[in-house]
Specification:
Blueprint lengths: L3 E4 L5 E2 L6 E7 L5 E2 L21 E5 L3 E10 L16 E8 L5 E6 L13 E11 L3 E10 L3
Length: 148
């Protein structure tokens, strides 16, 4: 029996339509995107819109970008981070999104090492399992290399 999949971090991403997307907000006045969601007010000092927070709307981020930086995660992170037991090393990548031109950090899909990656390599967003327990597989967004 397959376990239920649950996001490890509530409301930061979705894959309901079959495509993984990061969830954030965007200022309707100046267009500044925020991840994770910003619910207070636009923090862009050059924004000329109202500062009461009413200008922020839900926003789904683009799904492709290029690796800006990457590193091995060889040691189990301390609490409150939850990881598989036993801990399995993984790779993290900072990816500059094509549309928003902002950098988002995330794990790289399992099975790849730093030797498989390069700065500037095109990647896309996907969903993978962070850890599982008796009830569910807890998922997060991950980066997967693509052919340009």
């Amino acid at each position: 029996m397959q376990k239920e999949q649950r996001p490890a971090v509530a409301d930061w991403f979705t894959a309901e339509d079959g495509e993984a997307r990061l969830k954030g907000t965007r200022c309707t006045s100046c267009g500044t995107p925020y991840f994770p969601k910003n619910t207070l007010a636009c923090r862009n000092p050059y924004c000329e819109g109202p500062k009461d927070g009413s200008e922020l709307v839900d926003y789904l981020f683009s799904t492709r970008g290029r690796i800006w930086s990457y590193a091995d995660a060889r040691y189990k992170p301390p609490a409150p981070y939850v990881s598989a037991d036993p801990f399995v090393p993984y790779v993290v990548a900072a990816v500059e999104l094509e549309v928003e031109k902002m950098v988002i950090l995330g794990q790289v899909v399992r099975g790849l090492t730093v030797d498989d990656l390069a700065v500037g390599m095109p990647v896309e967003l996907t969903v993978g399992v962070l850890y599982e327990d008796d009830e569910a597989e807890h998922t997060v967004w991950m980066w997967r290399p693509v052919n340009d």
